Every structure is written in structure tokens, then in C-alpha cells.
DNA sequence: ACGCTCACTTAGTATTCCTTTG
DNA sequence: CAAAGGAATACTAAGTGAGCGT
């Protein structure tokens, strides 16, 4: 980017737009000027009154983007009417991973050790550590790795390392394994020392100042290089994710804040901009999905994220006032003779009833996953009289495999949409998320598809918590968890079964058998003493508790409760419930969630979602 | 109407931390 | 004290949707 930056076309779209619209309000982007010999590339100027910019006084005028030269702003259209997130913003930039340190352990090719350059050795190492994982067994992963490995090999190495099958990664793998063991074997003091060192190193990056307030930063570490691990059958798995250099990084910072010095000697930031219409502090282009960007954002516990989270839940809560009308609308339209209207209504019905995601079109070079609007005929089975079985891969290639009894009208419409279509064809071929969203906006301002997931998750929790029984804190907590579980199932939030699960269940079963045997033994006694009766009562109680926790554990083995807690359940429901039921908040929220939801802590106990 | 980019939220998994147990 | 086990956090991939240009 830097060397091309004289051409406006190389500035990201949003930046150009902002620069054009901008003028004084939106301190958008600018260009670099590589002729400058500064310690970063392209701290940009704009037409803001010069007295505001002391820094520029010491250097010759910087070349400006053509758009930025245009005369005074049209005040009506300042910053393109975009919302400004901050007035001042200062931070220390990003923390880069340490440079690669060669270990000298050889790749064995065709029985002979190969001398690799450090850069080659690094990439070989990426594969070597993974040699026994599922990934390394996948043809696509190996093929992509091999292509990129070949690409970075010097001619000399390429002349030797020609066939993947002749590579022996074992010595490298063993080296990494030993390193890991050594790390584990370190003494407590050594570990503590390393941790302290790490904290010192990251200290400048952990917080930023925004409008005079110190706030926590999220992912201030630049992602290290490695092999891309896509989820599911990702066509790009195994590709080399390249090392990000300062020139790849854009810093976004307040105009009057010092630009963080580039931490790598002799190198420069790709760009420095002052865009108040966004919340990110730094960003770089993803080297795998080249249309994507990675951003350094504030942490979830920051005010800026908290405010947006609160808005999200307020919007979902607002849907309560509109939901009846909306349901009436789609029920009436599901059987419309106009297929587009009927599809729109039926899709909305699914989004509401099953909390499906929108399902936007995806590029070919991504895993084949779907949401509501991209469901294909092969993903559903109609089971008379009006049950539909869904079997498809959703976000993160997580399988949605559920049967649902549906509205008979919806069932009939489904049949109509699928009629005469092959398995690979779209069920909802007349619509897309954008159209569904604009229809929703007509029914409620600001309403989009994803709001239904938040709404249904939160209102489900709220409804289930109303049935909380009297009892101990542990019992109430368990009731909360079951409600949480219902929501997780609704949203299809899953996790991989832990490796230890089966063994743990077996142990618990053994314990159960033992308790049952003990109980039988006690009950054999003829003249029941008061002491024995007590024992029996106690044992029975422990046994039933034990069995309950066993069945809960089994039911939850692949259900993830955390995702809905973090993203879907209005924290005010939980906080108010804790207050009403005298359950300490820490029983259901870990420390970071209490922090993240600090805006909800003062909610009144009677709060109803 | 459509495609595309950008910025943000949502997501599962890997790693680390902390507590319990042996 | 080490190992095990579970909880919490770190990491980064994968969605959604606004908004722009064509």
C-alpha cells in the first residue's frame, strides 16, 4: 500500500468516501507520502486549520489526496452524516510477535537432512507441529500448505524438497514437543518471571485513552504467522498466513495524539489516519481472505462496547411491542399467491420461530455453510402432516439437525417453494437478507433479522426464570443453567465433546452403582433404627442429586452455554433475577461478564424484559 | 437491483489459570 | 508438590448489515 499511495484508488473505499465527505468533522484518512523521511509512513494531513497541527510545522507540506483539496465542506453533509464515536483518541499501537528465531532442527527429506533458511524453517515448523492433528490428515490442508511452502522456498531448497511424501517432519515435531515439556517443567519462579516479563511488555498496549477516559483494549497483539485453520471443509485450510509487518498496519488515532513509534527499527506504519467515524485503533488486511480486514478494537468491558451492547438489547426489547403485528403480517402472507411475498413471510416465520440466522450469499472460496435465505432443498425433509426436518451446516460449520412441527400454512408453502427443484437449489430463490431486512424495517424502525435471535433468546430466558422454585442457591443456579440450556439449544450453540467426557461419565456411573448398592444394603435391615432411617434419607438425597448432575452433564456435553450468556441474553434479566432470588451474581457470571455488563448492574429487581 | 467493501458482532477452540485431589 | 479437571480467558474465524458505486 505505501508505495502506491499517491493514487487515491489505493485508499480503502470507506476512507475515500470519508475523505471526500469529510472536511473538518470526519477526520478521515489520508494518504502517505513516501518521499517523507519520517518514522512512520504517511501521517496524513487534511485541510483543518494549520494552527491545530503543530506537528506539520516542522516538515514541508505533505501531498494531499485530490479529494481533500476540494474547497470548504458543505456543512449540511459534514462527515457524510455519519456518527462520530470520539473526539480524542490516543494509544500505543500494536504489539508485534517476536521475530522468528531459527532452531536449526532439520527437515528430513528422502532420508537426508535439508538445510533450510530461517524463513523456510519457520514455515516447515508450522506444519511439523501439526503433523498429528486432524488438519494435517486432510488433503486440502496438505495441498494448500505444500503450495505455499513451495512458493516460499529458495531455488536451492526447491531443487531438493520436491515431494511432500518424502518429507519427514518428526525431528522438528519432537523438538517442539520437548520445548513444550521443558516449559511445563519450569519451576514456579521461572513461570512467574516469564509472566511478569510478559506483563511489562504488553503494559503500554492494554489500554487506550478515549475522550479523556482510560479504557481497556481488546486484541492489541498482531496475529502471528502460521497455517490457516479454517472451520469445516474450508477450501483455504493449510494456506500460509503471512507475517504482518508495520507497513501492513493502519493506525487510527486522534489528530492531536502522538503517533506511536513504529516498534520495528527501520520500518514504518503503512498509514496513519484520524477517522472518528470508526471505533478501531489499528487494522491490517487479512492475508488469507484478502477482502477481509483485522481490526484492533476496544475490549468487551469498555464503555464504547458497553453502550453498543445496551442498544442492541434495547432494540431487541422494543421488538416485544411489535412482534404481534409482525407475526400477524407473516402469517397472512405465507400463503400469498405471489411467491416472493410468500417466501419473505415464510423466511421471517423461520427466523422468528427457530432463531435461524439470515444466511447471506458466500463466495466459493469459503466453507459451504448456510442460513435461512440460503437453505437448499437438500437441507430439509418434509414429514407429513406438518413437521420439517432440517439438516444443514450453519455458521462455523456447526450442524443444525432438528425436526420442528411447523405452522401448517408454512409447511404447505415450503412444499410449494421446493416443488420441482433439485437438492442443490435454493428454497428461497426469490429473496435475500437485504430484502427481508428492508421489509422488517417497515414494520419496526431499525429491525433486522439478527434482532430476532437476541429477542427470542432473551425472552425465553425471562419466561423460564419466572418458574424458579424456592430452594438453595445451588438449586436456583441449576434452574438458571437449565434455562440457559434451552436458549443454547434454540440458538444451536454447540461445542465439541471433551476428550475426557466418556471416562468421566463412567466414573460417575460407578459411583452411582456404589451408592445404590449401599442403599440396598441399608434397606435390608429388619428393625429400622432412627439412625439407619436418617442414613437412608441422606443417601437417597445424595443419590438423586448425583443422578441429576449426571443427566445434566450428559445433556450438556455438546451444548455451549457461554455463547448465549455473552451475546444473546440481556444481562438485566439475569441481574434482576439474582436480586429477586438472593443469588450472588458471581454464581452465574464470571468476573469478566460482571465487568462487561457493568451498565446493567443497577437494574431494578422487578425488571421485565 | 445488485455487488462489493468495511466495520462490527458472534462463534468455537486452544491455552492458561485456578482449585481440588492424590 | 504434581496431576487432574474444570473454569476462564485468549485467540481469531465467520457471520451480519450499512452504505457505497454501478
From TrEMBL:
Q: Where is the composition biased (Acidic residues)?
A: 1-11, 34-48
User: For bias kind Basic residues, which ranges apply?
Assistant: 52-61
**Which residues lie in coiled coils?**
320-347, 498-532
Q: Give an example GO molecular function.
A: DNA binding
GO CC annotations on file:
chromosome; nucleolus
The record's keywords, sorted A to Z, are: Coiled coil, DNA-binding, Isomerase, Nucleus, Topoisomerase
Region annotated Disordered, chain positions: 1-78
Composition bias, Basic and acidic residues:
22-33
UniProt similarity note: Belongs to the type IB topoisomerase family.
Protein's recorded name: DNA topoisomerase I
Organism of provenance = Cymbomonas tetramitiformis
